[in-house]
Design a protein that fits this description.
295 residues; alpha+beta; Alpha-lytic protease prodomain-like; Alpha-Beta Plaits; 68% helix; elongated; cadmium ion transmembrane transporter activity; Protein p34
Length: 295
């Protein structure tokens, strides 16, 4: 979790640098398209702060009021990110509409564009770091931040190309049109972040690939049992909750059944470091002849 917090702190610092560069590019050119790019960077900084707060809360150990931990705090951060992204997109649409009604020639366009491109390169590198480390650390907040930055990078490239075309062709209306297209892209990004986070808040099961991996681990580690059924999973931040019924021979002692459960839990923790495992032991007459057959 300490690594996650360091990356989240880095997002704030990178976001502030990128924001300063993009605001400089807008001030130099007066381009509403570059303003839209800068507005998204303001959202980047705000959401990076929200992500850091959520990650710090999620790192707290379970207590009497939160016996299952605070892992879902990261999902709330991701939802907030999505909402802020959508608000920024609506603001950009308003600015684009005003610029469309009152178009203007850009000032010092090439110099401002060069500054914007430098900011986009920095954003692209940090986006790659967030997505890679967010997935490795199983952090919804970092992944959401990375996806947002990815949409920012893509739209920024489009803005840079479009502004360059506006400079070369002299078609000033291209500037607000680009800003509107950026806003639509940001709206889509915000919706994806919100919908993904809501799935986590609704206790959606882990992806099918991970589910098959869990079944395989249980089957390999449950020697001495008969079967495992009623497997349920959900994910909350970095924690994966796994629950199932384990069928053993009716003559199996409590100690032996407990040893089997311990072996399964160790195997699951080896594959899923933050797994929270709950096993309900049942005698063989409760077998459903379905689910996970023990090898």
């Amino acid at each position: 979790m300490e690594r996650t917090q360091k990356i989240a702190t880095g997002s704030i610092l990178i976001g502030l640098v990128v924001l300063a560069l993009k605001l400089m590019a807008w001030a130099m050119t007066g381009s509403v398209a570059l303003l839209s790019d800068a507005m998204e960077s303001i959202v980047n900084v705000a959401t990076a702060i929200a992500a850091l707060i959520a990650i710090r809360i999620a790192a707290r150990p379970a207590d009497s009021n939160h016996p299952y931990g605070h892992h879902k705090a990261e999902f709330f951060s991701a939802v907030l990110e999505g909402v802020l992204i959508i608000i920024a997109a609506l603001f950009i649409l308003r600015e684009a509409a005003q610029a469309f009604m009152n178009p203007r020639v850009l000032d010092a366009p090439l110099t401002g564009l060069a500054v914007n491109v430098a900011a986009n390169i920095l954003n692209g590198v940090w986006c790659w770091v967030l997505l890679r480390e967010g997935r490795r650390l199983r952090s919804p907040a970092l992944v959401a931040d990375g996806r947002h930055l990815l949409s920012d990078v893509v739209s920024s490239v489009g803005v840079a190309v479009g502004v360059l075309l506006a400079i070369l062709t002299g078609w000033v209306l291209l500037d607000p049109i680009l800003a509107a297209l950026v806003a639509v892209n940001i709206l889509w990004s915000g919706w994806r972040v919100v919908s993904t986070s809501l799935s986590g808040l609704m206790d959606e099961a882990v992806p099918e690939g991970e589910l098959e991996q869990i079944r395989a681990v249980i089957s390999d580690a449950a020697e001495g049992a008969i079967e495992a059924h009623d497997l349920k999973t959900r994910q909350a931040g970095q924690a994966t909750f796994i629950e199932f019924h384990l069928v053993v021979d009716g003559d199996t002692s409590v100690t032996s059944a407990h040893d089997i459960c311990d072996r399964i839990e160790r195997a699951l923790h080896a594959e899923f470091a933050d797994a929270q495992v709950t096993i309900h032991v049942e005698p063989e007459d409760k077998a459903k002849h379905s689910g996970v057959v023990v090898l």
